[in-house]
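Researcher: We plan to redesign the surface later, but first we want a full-length starting point. Tokens attached.
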């Protein structure tokens, strides 16, 4: 075969190879359409089972509009990376929705119709320091009946809850009916007539806020069945509930109902009356409990113990001092004592609680106990009776010894729970078998039909206005300014519980950003060595100063400013030793930098040199094999 023929054959082969490559790409796009592989460490792009069930149960189409200022963020790579993360998550939602989610990505340019529509939805444009125009990164969703839900701006610090926020928005649009919450309260949250002031007292602010988001239905404190349309029970200060009412609550939970329960060993808002009360003393608040239900469900709570905390104690005004006194029973719970991985408490600030109780899970319980609020390690429980007619809160400090471990004040209890009434309805008489066939209530469940979900809080006072909000009158309107996150906690809890079981199972996810863990490990090890050396320096410094002090005290000529020969030698020795140790400190720091630089160098060698070298060797091997075959 001539050389020209070989060249034509080679050119034809290359052309056929190119055509085959293009055909293979087209075929793979069609055959592998929808096939996705998540290779990230935290499975960032793999939706949870709860989210998948929410998407598969969408009946009517939902339109999602992602507004992102693409042009305005050209010089903001970090925000662009996160926007890409949001877009990819939304695309995964759309792919799993069987065509029920329709996603549109829009760049709202300044003064455009798209920007006007984004503002109409209620999305917020954020003015960044490096961009002259406001930046949008928000989501708006609409359903077939015209309901709208938005996420005004995707905060990068909420990345762990990105899937939850998106799933909640979709779930709300797919089920637009207003959620019904059954209120079971032993105190007047919705307002009452004050006989002393001879006027109506307004409802609690937390009750007003809940009314704006949910349908609150007052069930009273005596009922034998929970209405079918109630999805969540909000139980506050339950005192002396009958067995029939507790049985109704128990079976509601067994059938899949959710509950937000507030009990208290000492509820100051529900103060007991006492005749002959000494002047200047306040009566103790009343306790509340659900003993039958808690014992049956495996929850330990005692009305005889109050959590006291020396670290979180709030300063309150009393009549026994001209200045506020720290009250060990009033707790200022900070974010450090909150569960950062639960949607209810993840982004809350400080919360205030008063004379709260302690929650525990029984040893034989198989439920999951997830603390939400806790005390600091500088806490312990003290008898509730010590708060009875307490003249001065400083008396609680007498003999106070911290227990050394946090005590749980609020917790989420989930999982399979046994019924608190294993023998069935307690109101059914034993000898009335004839009537039981006709008048029997709904079927008795001895354990929860699906995983239960309860949030129990051992304090009622945190719901009251005085603990978290200041209400002021402004031109005839009541304006509430919150100074604590108590109200947000309650709304988050109700919002979480009113969501479907699938939505509750959507937990926080890993972060998209990947820290240089190896670099951080090297830095931590070097800093540990640095601290050890520094501590040795401080010890030797203290020892030298002690030695100098002894030499000074042994001097006979105390009035002289000159050092003795022995003192001068000791000082010289210390100066040389200090210089040597400082040199060692610098060497440790240089070693840290060298380790990190060496790691970076090897990464550069692998990425820049090794990978191209391997590809080059692979190409040369293919060419060599082809030449061998041609010669054969």
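Model: Full-length starting sequence:
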């Amino acid at each position: 075969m001539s050389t020209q023929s070989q060249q034509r054959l080679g050119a034809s082969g290359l052309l056929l190879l190119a055509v085959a490559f293009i055909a293979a790409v087209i075929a793979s796009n069609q055959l592998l359409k929808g096939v996705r592989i998540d290779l990230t460490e935290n499975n960032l792009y793999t939706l949870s089972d709860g989210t998948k069930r929410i998407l598969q149960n969408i009946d009517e189409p939902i339109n999602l509009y992602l507004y992102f200022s693409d042009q305005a963020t050209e010089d903001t790579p970090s925000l662009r990376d996160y926007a890409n993360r949001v877009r990819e998550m939304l695309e995964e939602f759309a792919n799993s929705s069987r065509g029920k989610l329709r996603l549109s990505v829009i760049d709202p340019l300044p003064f455009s119709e798209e920007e006007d529509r984004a503002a109409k939805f209620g999305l917020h444009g954020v003015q960044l320091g490096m961009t002259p125009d406001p930046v949008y990164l928000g989501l708006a969703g609409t359903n077939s009946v015209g309901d709208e839900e938005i996420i005004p701006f995707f905060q990068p610090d909420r990345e762990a809850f990105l899937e939850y926020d998106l799933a909640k928005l979709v779930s709300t649009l797919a089920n637009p009916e207003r959620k019904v919450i059954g209120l079971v309260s032993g105190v007047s949250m919705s307002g009452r007539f004050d006989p002393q002031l001879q006027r109506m007292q307004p409802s609690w602010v937390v009750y007003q806020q809940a009314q704006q988001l949910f349908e609150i239905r007052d069930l009273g404190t005596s009922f034998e069945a929970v209405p079918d349309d109630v999805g969540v029970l909000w139980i506050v200060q339950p005192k002396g509930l009958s067995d029939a009412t507790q049985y109704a609550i128990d079976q509601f939970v067994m059938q899949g109902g959710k509950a937000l329960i507030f009990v208290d060993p000492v509820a100051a808002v529900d103060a007991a009356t006492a005749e002959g009360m000494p002047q200047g003393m306040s009566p103790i608040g009343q306790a509340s409990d659900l003993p039958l239900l808690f014992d049956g469900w495996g929850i330990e709570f005692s009305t005889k113990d109050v959590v006291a905390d020396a670290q979180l104690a709030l300063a309150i005004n009393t009549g026994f001092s001209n200045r506020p006194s720290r009250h060990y029973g009033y707790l200022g719970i900070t974010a450090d004592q909150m569960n950062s991985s639960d949607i209810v408490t993840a982004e809350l600030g400080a919360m205030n609680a008063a004379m709260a109780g302690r929650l525990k899970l029984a040893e034989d319980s198989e439920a999951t106990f997830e603390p939400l609020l806790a005390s600091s390690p500088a806490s312990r429980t003290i008898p509730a009776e010590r708060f009875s007619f307490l003249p001065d809160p400083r008396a609680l400090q007498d003999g106070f010894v911290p227990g050394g471990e946090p005590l749980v004040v609020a917790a989420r209890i989930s999982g399979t729970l046994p019924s608190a009434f294993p023998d069935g309805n307690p109101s059914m008489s034993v000898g009335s078998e004839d009537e039981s066939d006709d008048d029997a209530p709904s079927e008795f469940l001895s354990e929860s039909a699906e995983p239960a979900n309860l949030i129990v809080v051992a304090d009622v006072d945190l719901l009251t206005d005085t603990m978290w909000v200041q209400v002021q009158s402004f031109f005839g309107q009541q304006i509430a300014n919150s100074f604590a996150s108590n109200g947000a906690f309650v709304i988050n809890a109700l919002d979480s519980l009113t969501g479907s079981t699938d939505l509750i199972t959507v937990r926080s996810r890993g972060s998209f950003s990947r820290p240089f863990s190896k670099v951080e490990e090297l830095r931590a090890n070097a800093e540990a060595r640095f601290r050890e050396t520094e501590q040795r320096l401080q010890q030797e410094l203290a020892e030298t100063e002690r030695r100098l002090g002894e030499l000074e005290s042994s001097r006979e000529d105390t009035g002289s400013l000159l050092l003795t020969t022995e003192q001068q030698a000791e000082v010289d020795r210390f100066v040389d030793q200090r210089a040597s140790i400082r040199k060692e400190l610098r060497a440790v720091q240089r070693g840290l930098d060298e380790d990190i630089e060496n790691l970076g160098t090897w990464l550069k060698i692998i990425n820049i040199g090794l990978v191209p070298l391997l590809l080059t060797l692979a190409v040369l091997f293919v060419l060599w094999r082809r030449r061998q075959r041609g010669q054969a």
